[in-house]
Amino acid sequence: MPNTQIVPASVNTTAVDMLSSAHGKGEVAHWFLTANPDDRDQQKAIEWIEKSIQDLLKAKDAIVTGQARELRRAVEVTEQITAVEL
To answer: Domain of life of the organism in this record (predicted)?
Structure first.
C-alpha cells in the first residue's frame, strides 16, 4: 500500500471525488494491479480501494470539522473584540 501524507483539503476533496466515481475506481484498480504485478488478486484490489475511499472520507470529515472549529473560534474572538470596542 502506498505511503500516506497530509495534503491540502482541495487535494483530499479531489481524491475523494475521483475515488468515489465508478471511473475513478476503475482507474485506481488499474493502477493498483499495474503497480503490483505480482499481486493480481482483484478482490484485494477492490478491498484496498474501498478502504482508501473510507480513509479519504474520514480525512475529509476531519478537515471539515477542523475548519468549522476554526471558524467558530474566529467568530468568538471577533465577538469578544467587538464587545470590548463597544
So the answer is: Bacteria
